[in-house]
Design goal:
The protein contains ten helices and five strands; from the N terminus they run αβαβααβαβαβαααα. By secondary structure, it is of the alpha/beta class. The chain has a five-stranded parallel beta sheet with strand order 2-3-4-1-5, sandwiched between helices. Helix 4 packs parallel to helix 5.
Length: about 210
């Protein structure tokens, strides 16, 4: 599936041209990683990788030394650092604030769960230092519906729409829902009765 431009991409690029750091939220498989991969990043850190995540969990301050070792400016611009899935190591945000305040780098921070960041009173959401954006599944302006019924049945998550075989897409969607219920609902204790919530999801979909 070829890249389909997202409406939020130009506002993000405009913020970066102002040396404004960016916080990009969105559900899994909405295309956050694909979008930020198109940006001219100096360095990308992905907390999806356990060995990378554990390294910064042990010592978030490592990031400060690594960024300070980069050239202060390249072609007149600050280094652009992408941190993917930042909610997995929330302590890193204090280090990011220091680097932003010192003008050492511009950041693009992506996260699939704003709730995980907001639930802790001590979590630093970088107020006034970042422009916050949200990436949803494809809108009709981004990807016009060729078959409305298919769009209604299977949704418009880029990761799912890239699967051309509808039977395979159903399998992938079932897996997505199961993972969502376990990781984003049960593990976070957002819903007390997971069975009732699962039935609610099915009823909401049928409507």
């Amino acid at each position: 599936m070829k890249y389909i431009p997202r409406l939020v991409e130009e506002p993000i690029r405009r913020a970066l041209r102002r040396n404004k750091s960016v916080l990009l939220f969105g559900a899994r498989q909405t295309g956050k990683t694909t979008l930020v991969s198109r940006l001219p990043a100096t360095w990308t850190i992905s907390f999806v990788r356990p060995e990378v995540r554990q390294r910064y969990e042990r010592s978030p301050q490592l990031l400060s030394g690594e960024v300070d070792a980069l050239p202060a400016r390249v072609k007149g611009r600050r280094p652009l650092i992408v941190v993917d899935e930042v909610q997995r190591v929330p302590a890193i945000l204090d280090v990011v604030q220091d680097l932003i305040d010192r003008g050492r780098a511009t950041f693009v921070l992506t996260g699939s769960s704003a709730r995980k960041l907001r639930r802790g009173a001590a979590i630093n959401l970088l107020p006034g230092r970042v422009a916050a954006f949200h990436l949803d599944p494809f809108s009709l302006r981004e990807y016009p519906a060729e078959a409305l019924q298919e769009r209604l049945l299977y949704g418009s998550l880029p990761g799912m729409m890239a699967v051309s075989n509808l039977r395979d897409r159903e399998v992938d969607l079932a897996s997505y829902v199961a993972t969502y219920l376990e990781d984003e609902v049960r593990a976070e204790a957002v819903v007390r009765h997971i069975g009732d919530f699962a039935r609610f999801v099915e009823l909401a979909a049928s409507e």
